[in-house]
Amino acid sequence: MIRNPKERDDIEVGLKVNIVLKKDQRTNKLTQGIVKKLLTNSSYHPHGIKVQLEDGQVGRVKEIL
């Protein structure tokens, strides 16, 4: 199954993902981590679902690894 980083149902706690932090949105620099918490409540977001990683960083999911 292919997971879509823009669909909330495809992202779950414990997944390894690449996110874009707010400060990196212009450069699209990716940060890798494990999802601790989903922060977007809607089922879909065009820029990616916002999550908090286990290390506390917050950003939008760009890739699910």
Automatic annotation (TrEMBL):
Any Pfam family: DUF2196
Xref: InterPro entries: DUF2196
The organism's place on the tree of life at top rank: Bacteria
Name of the protein this chain belongs to: DUF2196 domain-containing protein
